[in-house]
Design a protein that fits this description.
By secondary structure, the chain is an alpha/beta fold. Helices cover 39% and strands 13% of the residues. The protein is built from 10 helices and 9 strands. The longest helix has 18 residues. The model has no long low-confidence stretch (mean pLDDT 93).
Length: 291
């Protein structure tokens, strides 16, 4: 296991090709702060730069996942937005939860949420750009923004309807009520619900299945394809990306290894690294700017 960087509000560890980010303010149910925001972004920067990391798990210390924004500032908690980043052409602070969600969205590795307890406000919206969400039986969820006099953040108005449908998203956001893990499962927000002691082992088993059997560059490209195509206007956009991807990957050393290892009935050892760069299969795609 690699040593953890010098973070104060998260714990970052890498073992067996899996990076685990643990939100680490257990006495405050891991309430979200500006420090936590910056440390999570820095952790995902480390993840993308480290070829040893193939999958990410995000969980919480203690009995909570993340209880939402730290409200210790009282009534002025939300008065400045959510971060200190203020683009000159806009003049308003960027939402801190949104900065985290966008960084997760851009991650080159699959991200699994192991939601071990209450996940409210930004505590649930930060999980939406993660790829797979597992919940403990003790988890509780709440899109509570309207009850705090604000609106959904962390890009959740884009992610949530795509994950659970507009009607379910609207009901949860309009009411702002907190609901149990069973309802999150029924509504399609989480993949499965587990006994507390089984949650992290299940997440680790899913991560190991990915890390041990797949080509990291193929997974990175697949992640981009699945998320970006959610906003495509026609399946032809997917066909173009598919065609470029098959051509680029099909002539790679990874493809040769994938076929030969299958024929030889042995585990694959894919040689191409994510840090070598990903082929551009979306030549017309541009990351929108904040403006």
């Amino acid at each position: 296991m690699s040593p953890s960087p010098d973070f104060t509000q998260i714990v970052y560890e890498v073992s067996d090709h899996v990076a685990t980010i643990t939100l680490n303010r257990p006495d405050q149910l891991n309430a979200f702060t500006g420090v936590m925001m910056r440390e999570m972004i820095a952790a995902f920067d480390l993840i993308d730069a480290d070829d040893d990391v193939r999958v990410v798990i995000v969980t919480g210390a203690g009995r909570g996942f993340c209880a939402g924004a730290d409200l210790s500032s009282g009534g002025e908690t939300f008065s400045r937005g959510g971060s200190d980043e203020i683009p000159e052409d806009v003049g308003v602070p960027r939402d801190g939860g949104g900065l985290v969600s966008l960084r997760i969205f851009e991650c080159k590795k699959p991200v699994i949420a192991a939601i071990n307890g209450p996940a409210v406000g930004v505590g649930v919206t930060m999980t939406l750009p993660m790829d797979i969400r597992l919940a403990s039986e003790s988890a509780r969820f709440g899109f509570v923004f309207a009850r705090r006099g604000i609106v959904p953040e962390a890009c959740s108005s884009w992610f949530l309807p795509r994950l659970v449908g507009i009607s379910q998203a609207a009901e949860w956001c309009y009411s702002g009520r907190v609901f149990p893990a069973a309802e999150a499962l029924a509504g399609g927000l989480v993949r499965s619900v587990h006994a507390p002691e089984d949650l992290l082992p299940t997440a680790q088993a899913i991560a190991a299945e990915i890390a041990e059997n797949t080509a990291p560059v193929s997974v990175a490209l697949t992640r981009q394809m699945l998320w970006r195509m959610l906003g495509a206007s026609h399946p032809m956009e997917a066909h173009r990306a598919d065609s470029r991807g098959i051509m680029e990957r099909g002539r790679s050393d990874d493809a040769r290894e994938g076929v030969v290892s299958f024929l030889e009935k042995r585990p694959p050892s894919f040689p191409v690294k994510v840090s070598d760069g990903l082929p551009d299969i979306f030549p017309s795609y541009e990351t929108p700017k904040f403006s």
